[in-house]
Design brief:
Elements lengths: L27 H10 L6 H11 L13 H11 L4 E9 L4 E8 L4 E8 L4 E4 L3 E3 L14 E4 L2 H16 L12 E4 L9 H12 L13 E5 L3 H8 L6 E5 L5 H7 L8 H15 L3 E7 L7 H12 L7 E7 L13 H13 L4 E3 L20
Parallel strand pairs: 4-7, 7-8, 8-9, 9-10, 10-11, 11-12
Antiparallel strand pairs: 1-2, 2-3, 3-4, 5-6
Helix pairs in contact: 4-5, 6-8, 9-10
This protein binds S-adenosyl-L-homocysteine.
The site of S-adenosyl-L-homocysteine (SAH) has 18 residues, from strand 8 and strand 10.
Length: 373
């Protein structure tokens, strides 16, 4: 990018309309109260939650335990339509599916389902757009439109769960095992809604989807106060930190929020998360040719991480850069990537290279831009 750096935006513009309330936004008590406010029987809330989270139903006609005369009002009251699929793109024989969603106010977001032999991962968006302005990321170029609601986040996962349950994804019926907040947006800048979605996804049925918190990964540019807050929640989600450079000079450019919290402050917050939760933190590092992939930067990264101890608190996940249109950055040479891995491992840091599923449907990391409609 040759233009001026975009400003950092931590809060959504004021006065945005809110999506209609949905049961995934509410506690079981609030769901009951909402129905009663609408003049409907509160005890129906549990039946609606069972349809949504356990039976994975989305057609009111199937909800035959609800009185026909009230069914529509009940569904509208707690299960309003939050988003419509505009486009589904598939790759890898249908086991990778990207969906472009239109939200109630016209905002566009994307989610990606990835089915592997042993598990299925949903990559979800947490904001329409993003205010973090990382110059190599497609979403970062458009700025932040708004935060997504808890139910808008949950619904991306449930849409995947329904498709799997109905056998629409090759491999037979299945469930969502992993959720990664690696779609559009900065989850830690929409903390409350993201934590609400984690709660809804991990609460056992019928009040939630009942998946394990250990299957959820929250990826962040490094909003230090929120990382500290996350460590106190007592929810064992995996934290991923998008580091991309071990030195402030380069990271200030690649991840502009680094001008607010430095590499050391950010890595210290990640280390603290590992210490408090006993969960190994993942360091994300998008490999950019001749930018951040030099051997000396691998050594420096190893030193920075090891300075916090070698008790296995961290591993590094290298992401081959997905070049975005007009960007000056491109993926590293394979030889440089191998040398980078070798040096990190020699320093004692477990290192993996992310596979780049969905590249040809612009569904891989950092490519979600939702510009199509
Ligand atoms: N805002 C969160 C989630 C964003 S996407 C975060 O930054 O962590 C998840 C990962 O994809 C992040 O590590 C992000 O830096 C990375 N990413 C963004 N653009 C990319 C690109 N063009 N190629 C490869 N990875 C990219």
């Amino acid at each position: 990018m040759t233009g001026q750096p975009l400003p950092l935006v931590f809060e959504e513009p004021k006065g945005r309309r809110k999506p209609p309330p949905h049961l995934a936004d509410l506690t079981p008590e609030e769901r009951k109260a909402r129905l009663e406010e609408l003049g409907l029987p509160g005890f129906r809330a549990t039946q609606l939650a069972t349809h949504y989270f356990t039976r994975l139903a989305d057609d009111p006609a199937q909800m035959t335990d609800l009185p026909a005369g009230q069914r529509e009002q009940l569904v509208e009251g707690l299960l309003p339509t939050l988003m419509t699929p505009l486009k589904v793109s598939q790759a890898d024989g249908g086991t990778t599916r990207k969906t472009l969603w239109r939200l109630f106010d016209g905002a566009l977001v994307e989610s990606v389902l990835m089915r592997y032999s042993d598990r299925t991962t949903m990559c979800v968006s947490s904001q329409a757009g993003c205010g973090m302005a990382c110059p190599f990321c497609a979403t970062g170029q458009g700025g932040l439109q708004r935060n997504m609601s808890t139910a808008e986040i949950v619904e991306q996962v449930l849409a995947g769960a329904r498709a799997l349950d109905r056998g629409e994804v090759p491999g037979g019926p299945g469930r969502v095992n992993n959720v990664v907040f690696m779609g559009m947006g900065e989850p830690m800048a929409n903390y409350k809604a993201v934590m609400g979605s984690v709660r809804a996804l991990t609460t056992p049925g019928p009040h939630g989807y009942g998946m394990s918190a250990r299957g959820i990964t929250i990826s962040t540019v490094g909003l230090v106060p929120r990382m500290e807050q996350l460590a106190t929640e007592g929810i064992p989600v995996t934290l991923a930190l998008s580091l991309h450079a071990p030195d402030d000079e380069l990271r200030n450019e690649l991840v502009p929020v680094n001008t607010r919290w430095s590499v050391h402050e950010t890595v210290a917050a990640a280390w603290n998360y590992a210490k408090v939760t006993k969960r190994r933190v993942s360091i994300e590092y998008a490999m950019m040719r001749d930018i951040n992939d030099q051997a000396w930067r691998a050594d420096l990264l190893g030193e920075v991480l090891m300075s916090y101890g070698d008790w296995g608190w961290v591993h590094v996940n290298l992401i081959p850069l997905n070049p975005t249109p007009g960007s000056k950055w491109t993926a590293s040479r394979k030889a440089d990537e191998r040398e980078f891995v070798r040096r990190l491992e020699a320093a004692g840091i477990p290192t993996t290279v992310r596979d780049t599923r969905g590249q040809e449907i612009d569904g891989a990391c950092g490519q979600l831009a939702a510009t199509e409609a």
